């Protein structure tokens, strides 16, 4: 919302969700047309080894451009401990269906986090100054926003794994599941982004939790829930990366020993990356434009256009023809803008409105939000 402009950001979220819905169904249709049951085999049959290699690189890199625990109080210790105690054991499962209950728990925790963000827009928003351009319709960084939104909706790299885990996998059943899931996802995304932006407007950070003050006990609980959701979600991403390694180097099958070794190596490398990165905003942008954009916009469209024998005027082909160049633009322009104009990052530092010289937020975890002013109340010159 900060990058695109609030009204345009809402419209873009709906557009990205629609494209996601369409492309997920398109992938399974492409698999049915080509007689393949994995994303890699679909691209390999459609574009040969070069396409297969490109997709493998994108799928392999995706989990490594993720910051699994953006916590700043002993964050290195927490990352290592949570990886060894939770992420690694969960990632050792060989059947993705066994992670179903874990994914449900992650969804419940996400709902709790959303409730916290919604509560704070009511109690905190009146005390945070609004930036001058807070309500403009559109801003020049909209393409960067599309990259972040693409990251939020990306799940194409494991859609064949999920499709294969269904009791009776059919394109019609998959389409119904995708429609419901995408609708729920966009509603959650709208609520998160709207509540976060209404609270902080132009001061919104790439990681929304960086905007809240450290003495906010309710938000601290939200941070904990967020860390748990990522711990529970990451094993699904590990499935995809491990499958890529298995297909490229082991002919699609891993023995128990190599299964453990490959999983440990993947998790260790990802953990080392997360230890070195503490800015979630640039991570989301680069992941969105370099991995999510081609996996959502470009590759599903290209595969379907080459495999489908429908006439050029068919609605699916028209939509695919639009998605492909749009995805290329988002990927190239978004990458350039992410490098030249990265999102703000506090590196774990408190925001200016949390300091006593401006005002102190006390008793913030209670039912009432109290504001105690100091002699240098609000530092109006900073806000203007």
Task: Describe the overall structure.
By secondary structure, the chain is mainly alpha-helical. Helix content is 66%, strand content 2%. It is built from twelve helices and two strands; from the N terminus they run H-H-H-H-H-H-H-H-H-H-H-E-E-H. It has helices at residues 6-34, 39-61, 75-91, 100-123, 142-153, 159-164, 171-200, 217-249, 256-276, 280-307, 315-340, 380-383; strands at 359-362, 370-373. Strand 1 (359-362) and strand 2 form a beta hairpin. The model is unreliable at 67-73 and 359-384 (pLDDT under 50).
Which stretches are poorly predicted, pLDDT < 50 over at least 5 residues? 67-73, 359-384
Average pLDDT figure: 83
Number of strands: 2
Quaternary state of the chains: single chain
Q: How many distinct helices?
A: 12
**Rg to the nearest angstrom?**
22 Å
Shape: globular
The secondary structure category is mainly alpha
String of helices and strands? HHHHHHHHHHHEEH
Strand content: under 5%
Query: Which strand order do you get reading across the main beta sheet?
Result: 1-2
Helix content: 55-70%
Major sheet, described briefly?
2 strands, antiparallel
> Cα distance, first to last residue?
21 Å
Keywords: Amino-acid transport, Membrane, Transmembrane, Transmembrane helix, Transport
Function: Putative sodium-dependent amino acid/proton antiporter.
Protein name: Putative sodium-coupled neutral amino acid transporter 11
Membrane topology: Multi-pass membrane protein
């Amino acid at each position: 919302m900060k990058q695109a402009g609030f009204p345009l950001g809402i419209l873009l979220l709906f557009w990205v969700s629609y494209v996601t819905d369409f492309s997920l169904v398109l992938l399974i249709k492409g698999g049915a047309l080509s007689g393949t049951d994995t994303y890699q085999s679909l691209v390999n049959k459609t574009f040969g080894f070069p396409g297969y290699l490109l997709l493998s690189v994108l799928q392999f890199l995706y989990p490594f451009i993720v910051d699994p625990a953006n916590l700043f109080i002993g964050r290195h210790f927490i990352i290592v401990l949570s990886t060894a105690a939770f992420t690694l054991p969960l990632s050792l499962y060989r059947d993705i269906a066994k992670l179903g209950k874990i994914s449900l728990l992650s969804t419940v925790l996400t709902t709790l986090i959303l409730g916290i963000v919604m509560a704070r827009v009511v109690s905190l928003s009146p005390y945070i100054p609004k930036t001058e351009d807070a309500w403009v319709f559109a801003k020049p960084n909209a393409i960067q926003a599309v990259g972040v939104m693409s990251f939020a909706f990306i799940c194409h790299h494991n859609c064949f794994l999920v499709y294969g885990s269904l009791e009776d996998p059919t394109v019609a059943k998959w389409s119904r599941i995708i429609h419901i899931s995408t609708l729920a996802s966009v509603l959650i995304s709208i609520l998160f982004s709207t509540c976060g932006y209404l609270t902080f407007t132009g001061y919104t950070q790439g990681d929304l939790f960086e905007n809240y003050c450290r003495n906010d006990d309710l938000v601290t609980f939200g941070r904990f829930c967020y860390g748990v959701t990522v711990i529970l979600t990451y094993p699904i991403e590990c499935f995809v990366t491990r499958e890529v390694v298995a297909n490229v180097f082991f002919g699609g099958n891993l023995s128990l020993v190599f299964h453990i070794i490959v999983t440990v190596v993947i998790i260790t490398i990802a953990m080392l990356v997360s230890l070195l990165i503490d800015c979630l905003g640039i991570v989301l942008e680069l992941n969105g434009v370099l991995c999510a954009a081609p996996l959502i916009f470009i590759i599903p469209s290209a595969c379907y256009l080459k495999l489908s024998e429908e006439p050029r005027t068919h609605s699916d082909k028209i939509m695919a023809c639009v998605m492909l160049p749009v995805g290329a633009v988002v990927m190239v322009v978004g990458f350039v803008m992410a490098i030249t104009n990265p999102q703000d990052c506090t590196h774990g530092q408190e925001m200016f409105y949390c300091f006593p010289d401006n005002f102190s937020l006390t008793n913030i975890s209670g039912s009432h939000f109290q504001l105690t002013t100091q002699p240098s109340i609000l530092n109006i010159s900073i806000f203007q």
